[in-house]
Amino acid sequence: HSAHRLRIERGRLIVIDEEADRRFGFDAVEFAAKDMRAEGPFDVEFAFDNDNALSGRAISTRWRFEGQADWGGLLPAAMKVSARRLSLDIDGRVISARGSIKSLAAPEVDLELDLPELNSDILRRYAPSPAAVPEGFALGPSKVELRAAAIEAAASTSTAAGRPVHVRLFKVSADGLRLTASGIVGPLGKKVDLNLALRGTSLERLSEIYSRLKPYALTGSVDADAKISGALAAPALRNASIKLSDFSGQFGKTIRISKSDIRLGVFEDGKTWTITVPSGRYSALSNALTDLNVAAKYDGKDLAVDRLSFTWNDSRVDLSGCVED
Q1: What residues contact 274, with CB distance under 8 A and at least 6 apart?
Q2: Which runs of E-coded beta strand occur in the chain?
Q3: Omega into 107 within 30° of 0, i.e. cis?
């Protein structure tokens, strides 16, 4: 059996949490469903307003959903929701999304989100510690892609909320910035084990996103990979590699690096560092190092210089060696 049409207009919903002594109110509730049944997809729309507080600041939100739902014969593993359009209006700033969530037994999420512009002032309004938000950050409208699934439960874990989540893809694209992440988060958001990647990002564009970089007059591009793991609130950097291509920058009034390719590596939980500079130019005051070629490794105790060669003014220097603790 199915309900051919079901509609709620101008409703109000109050949720009372007696244990926490809290009330949640949802106003202007609208709900419409067509051919709703226990099994099989049906069209559904709903919307509501909610006034709440975040970090001690009052916020007003408006939620709207248009899509399909499937109760899956009331079997959690067969339930599914797909959104043609999901929008969240927060104090006049709109986040739009589309995608699907499959299975309440082991949820699978496939979403695309369109986010409005973000800057330091906006982040400061909602941040738990506004003073910690840096000045000079401004990111234009961005697109986020998320594909994730709860890992199958162990016998001792009965709820989806208690399981780790496999993040197959988390991707942010905005203003020439492409950041991706994949890995494991959980359980209950307590731990994280992620691989991060930044690809082909212009340093000039990064300076526009974060204006505090502008005094360094950075040019070139950056590619980076990193692995982080540990507590979600304070994950540790395990490994990282950074590639600066055709890099130039001004540091203070007297130091300049020009047209350099630089590779930096961090390994073994930050215990080992490497640097490779196959080409570049370094100048300080009236001294210039050209045709720079460096390969070095530091393991927390010893510094091994496999290769250090450069032209200093009119002299060529070639060195190698080791500085031991």
Answers
A1: 263, 264, 265, 267, 295, 296, 297, 298
A2: 2-17, 22-37, 42-54, 57-70, 80-90, 93-102, 108-115, 118-119, 138-139, 142-150, 165-174, 177-185, 191-202, 219-231, 236-251, 255-267, 272-284, 287-298, 303-312, 315-323
A3: no
Phi/psi at 159 (5° precision): -115, 150
Contacts of residue 83, defined as CB under 8 A and 6 or more positions apart, other chains included, come to: 65, 66, 67, 97, 98, 99, 100
Report the amino acid identity of residue 276: T
Task: Please give the DSSP secondary-structure letter assigned to residue 129.
Answer: S
Each of the 325 residues of the chain gets a pLDDT tens digit; together they read 556 788 888 888 888 777 767 777 888 999 999 888 889 999 999 999 988 776 667 788 999 999 999 999 989 999 999 999 999 999 889 999 999 999 988 899 999 999 999 999 999 888 878 888 899 999 999 999 999 998 875 544 445 556 788 999 999 999 889 999 999 987 765 789 999 999 999 999 999 999 999 999 999 999 999 999 988 778 889 999 999 999 999 998 888 999 999 999 998 877 889 999 988 888 887 788 888 888 899 888 888 888 888 888 778 888 877 777 6
Q: At 143, which amino acid appears?
A: K
Report helix, strand or coil for 152.
Answer: coil
Residue 206's H or E segment, with its range, is: helix 203-209
Q: What CA–CA distances, in Å, run from 318 to 177, 257, 305, 307, 312?
A: 39, 20, 11, 8, 11
pTM of the model: 0.80
Distances (CA, A) of 137 to 90, 171, 211, 212: 20, 19, 7, 8
